[in-house]
Write a structure and sequence with these properties.
4-stranded antiparallel beta sheet, 43% helix, 324 residues, alpha+beta, extended
């Protein structure tokens, strides 16, 4: 015989309570990370919400809809932020997990509950401190995870605070590198030295570590050189996204500054475009546009085209294409 329905319901409730209790520390740590010096200065969404001094609050329903929080709640990472998709019970679970936190404080009640940062905040100062203890890490395999990389450095005695996997803006594909924030500048220096001595090997590959500030400076110089030569940059520090899919604010500012310097503080003129290597290649020795070369087709090649009338006979369509 199966147990009475009331007993089954009680068992399910106990299991749900145990699962919530197990998730609570991770939920608290994740929300505290959102409002920390490691994330807040670079998180445009949150920074716009709380203001430059981080004195404002963010509704808990919004926080509960963040991708990582949804994942911790067992709801999946559907969309970057979807607060409406999170039910009241899960929002209450996040609220319960944050009670007693020293890093963030709760304000309001029920559906109006919001969260704010406790410590005073200065974005510029916070960014400087974080960058002073952050390093660029490569090469990393495509299946690298934030937790996996952080745990690797912890096992090497290199305590760290956060990790950002670098991704392409459009495809979101992992670039095989990351920015790792160590516990202190001294710890970061220790990590850089260990890598230089070949002591850090991740899944068999020797890691290259470089100070984040040096890496960013090198990329900016690369962008300026490429822009001056009329080419496209080979790398883009703006491809670094935070775990919610937002470009890091300081990286965007650096890119904008580099672009402005590369363009001499002005937009490219038509004259400069006309003098570009690409424009020169498209013109002949007489300065006139070159005629496009006639295309060559191999038998059996399938091509797609537009412009034929819907009523055009098949025989007409077959005879129409020419190379003249």
């Amino acid at each position: 015989r199966s147990p009475p329905r009331s007993r089954r319901l009680a068992t399910m409730a106990d299991a749900a309570a145990d699962a919530a209790a197990a998730r609570a520390p991770k939920l608290r740590a994740q929300v505290e990370f959102y409002f920390s010096d490691s994330n807040l200065p670079k998180d445009k969404f949150l920074l716009d919400a709380v203001g430059p001094d981080a004195a404002g609050t963010v509704p808990l329903a919004t926080i509960a809809g963040f991708a990582k929080i949804r994942e911790l709640l067992g709801l999946g990472r559907q969309g970057r932020r979807a607060p409406k998709a999170v039910d009241d019970e899960h929002v209450k679970e996040v609220i319960a997990a944050l009670k007693g936190s020293e890093a963030v404080a709760l304000e309001g009640e029920g559906e109006e509950t919001a969260v704010r940062r406790v410590a005073p905040f200065d974005a510029k100062e916070a960014l400087a401190k974080v960058e002073a203890r952050s390093v660029y890490v490569a090469p990393l395999p495509k299946h690298t995870t934030i937790d996996g990389l952080r745990n690797f450095f912890e096992a090497e005695g290199l305590a760290n605070l956060s990790c950002r996997l670098r991704r392409h803006v459009k495809s979101k594909d992992f670039k095989g590198s990351a920015f790792l924030e160590l516990e202190s500048a001294e710890m970061a220096a220790k990590a850089v030295a260990a890598a230089a001595e070949g002591k850090l090997k991740y899944e068999g590959a020797a890691l290259k570590l470089q100070w984040q500030a040096d890496f960013k400076a090198a990329v900016i110089e690369n962008r300026k050189a490429k822009a001056a030569g009329g080419g496209a940059p080979t790398d883009d520090i703006g491809d670094d996204l935070d775990e919610e899919g937002n470009p890091a604010a300081d990286l965007d500012d650096a890119i904008a500054a580099a672009d402005k310097l590369a363009a001499g503080g002005k937009k490219r003129s038509r004259e400069s475009d006309a003098a570009s290597p690409r424009a020169k290649r498209e013109k002949g020795d007489d300065g006139k546009p070159r005629e496009a070369a006639a295309p060559e087709f191999e038998k059996g090649l399938i091509v797609a085209f537009e412009g034929a009338a819907d009523t055009a006979p098949e025989a007409t369509v077959k005879e129409a294409p020419t190379t003249s």
